[in-house]
Amino acid sequence: MSVTSVPGFVAAGMACGVKPSGADDLAMVATADGSTVTAAGVFTSNLMTAPPVLVSRDHLATTGGRAAAVVVNSGNANAATGQSGRADAETMCALTAGAVGCQTDEVLVCSTGLIGFPLPMEAIAPAIQTVAAAMTTEGGPAAARAMMTTDTVPRTTVATGLTVEGSTFTVGGVAKGAAMLEPNMATMLAVLTTDAEVDAATATGLLRTAVGVSFNCLTVDGAESTNDTVLLLASGSAGPVEPDVLGAALSDACRDLAVQMADDAEGSTKTVFLTVTGAASDAEAAKGARDTANCQLVKCSWYGEDPYWGRIAAEMGAAGIAFDPTTISISYGGQVVYADEAVQPVDADALTAHMAGRQIDLDVDLGQGDGSAWIVTTDLSHAYIDENMRTS
Fold this sequence. Notes:
Elements: E1 9-14, E2 26-31, E3 37-43, H1 51-63, E4 66-67, E5 69-76, H2 82-100, E6 107-114, H3 121-133, H4 140-146, E7 155-162, E8 168-176, E9 189-197, H5 200-212, E10 229-240, H6 243-263, E11 271-279, H7 282-293, H8 296-303, H9 309-317, E12 329-332, E13 335-339, E14 342-343, H10 348-356, E15 359-365, E16 371-378, H11 382-388
Parallel strand pairs: 5-6, 9-10, 11-15
Antiparallel strand pairs: 1-2, 2-5, 3-4, 3-10, 7-8, 8-9, 11-16, 12-13, 12-15, 13-14
């Protein structure tokens, strides 16, 4: 259940010495024969853009949306590293191209980890040939492990659909991400593969839409990274697919990976699914949802398993959107806890049980219109602070 669940793709992961712990830190995903396929990418909007992002963008532009391989290192973001960082990213692509049998600009590159440190190319460079030689049709999970930083488990997914001719196509994916999860995307990387036939322009549009309803609906701490990247390689071997069908499969795969990220976010004990309805517009619903999801007071109440509606109402009222205290209603676990300007009677035992679970469902109806939005977020625990108060 990964990128290598799609026929025609191989992958591998290994340790090369970027991480002092000795954990796996170099991954590769490629076409089995080294041939180029349709490729698309969605990248961070952070203007402090890391060299690997700049290189991958340029390579997609140069090739018109074609690629044969993706090389990823973890443990070092190769960000805030200037021209030397860009040269290192290009070197990773050149070495991968030589190992796979394609051109340098037909390789895409990702890095993740600490910002501001030069890549240890003396460790990465000799290992690229080794990881390329290790790629197999079973190597997707190993690639996912090698992408991890503070993640505690690898993230993989698969989705399927029907081609125009009625045969099955597959979308596979691997990803990493456990904190700084805030659109546009976050400290996250994802590589998707498919055997659906699609041109580069359509693939890019579908990928952007899929990211918009998945990774961009995820926030852990309101921070946006320098390296965020989602890449898609599409071989076309399964045949043509209706764009809406392929888009749905891509969205399903990306949503699955996004929820996995929330479930394993740094220090989190709760994954919260927040739905806002009744807003004046979808944009206002999204604003209210995001402000609430990023509110530290609200996050602390989730950590304490407290369905305190007051913090929710206060954050919605401060979001700068159409709001009327007489029309808002708030529900936890399907039970209305506040409506009509009054606390509502609930099944206390059922509500306590819901708040004690790993996943919390929170619904807010603003009573102002037809706008709606969905977001997945987490609580704020002591462990999150412990994880992020140091850089090594």
